[in-house]
Write a structure and sequence with these properties.
With 253 residues, the chain is mainly alpha-helical. Helices cover 40% and strands 5% of the residues. It has a two-stranded antiparallel sheet. Strands 3-4 form a two-stranded antiparallel ribbon.
């Protein structure tokens, strides 16, 4: 894009050329080249200039490069060997080696006396005759034959007992408070009238909530809407509490 017209652009500006410093060249460059050439052999990369051709009579034979065992075997020295002691006349250990067990006869006796094997129950899985054990198939009633089948678990009995004790303690507490005159039971008429009054208040609150403006653009409108929502939630909780509990106790204070 072209630059905008300006008074400062009328006077031409001198171009400033940036001069680069000369390239650095080490003074040991030629010395390094000579040392490198001296250390390199004449056949470093291309091999020897003349190689002797191998003779066809000296071909590679089978197992020629395999490691061979040394032919020299160190003889055993008699002094290092432990000789067995000579058995005496009274020693009868040689008689024990003559006693042999007749394994064929003993196996035959064991098989005759052993009880017959019972075949494991199985069922046919496919038309080709593939079988599987009946015990792992789920068709055998295992759990029905257990001793504790159909009985209430122990943890449920303990929980039921705790609930019963807590209810008894609560009933005793209520009776004691009624006996002292600090509490009284709400009658059915009072309970129904209270419930109807709460529902009526909820209907009025709902009517006021529905009459609110759709656009809430000011802080007073927003505060009023939040206040009505909190009051309606509280009334709904109270109505649900009275409907769920038939017996209600209130304090005289």
């Amino acid at each position: 894009m072209e630059q905008a017209e300006s008074v400062y652009n009328l006077i031409p500006k001198e171009e400033v050329k940036i001069e680069k410093p000369p390239r650095y060249v080490s003074k040991f460059r030629e010395q390094v080249k000579q040392e490198k050439q001296m250390n390199k052999s004449s056949h470093k990369t291309m091999g020897l200039p003349k190689v002797e051709i191998p003779s066809p009579e000296k071909f590679l034979r089978k197992y020629s490069k395999a490691s061979k065992l040394s032919d020299k075997i160190t003889p055993f020295k008699e002094e290092n060997l432990r000789r067995m002691p000579i058995s005496t006349r009274s020693d009868c250990s040689w008689m024990r080696t003559q006693l042999r067990k007749d394994y064929i006869k003993s196996n035959a006796i064991d098989n005759i006396l052993s009880p017959p094997r019972k075949p494991q129950p199985s069922y046919t899985l496919t038309k080709n005759g593939d079988k599987q054990l009946l015990e792992n198939s789920g068709l055998v009633p295992k759990y029905v034959n257990k001793k504790d089948y159909g009985q209430i678990p122990e943890y449920l009995q303990q929980r039921k007992e705790k609930e019963r004790r807590a209810q008894e303690e609560y009933d005793e507490y209520i009776k004691e408070r009624l006996r002292q005159g600090a509490m009284k039971q709400l009658s059915d008429e009072e309970r129904l009238s209270t419930l109807q009054g709460l529902k009526k208040n909820l209907e009025e609150m709902l009517h006021q909530y529905q009459c609110l403006s759709i656009v809430i653009d000011t802080i007073p409108k927003r505060n009023r809407k939040e206040r009505l929502e909190l009051q309606m939630k509280k009334l709904e909780r109270d109505i649900d509490l009275i409907e769920r509990h038939k017996t209600i106790y209130i304090t005289n204070n």
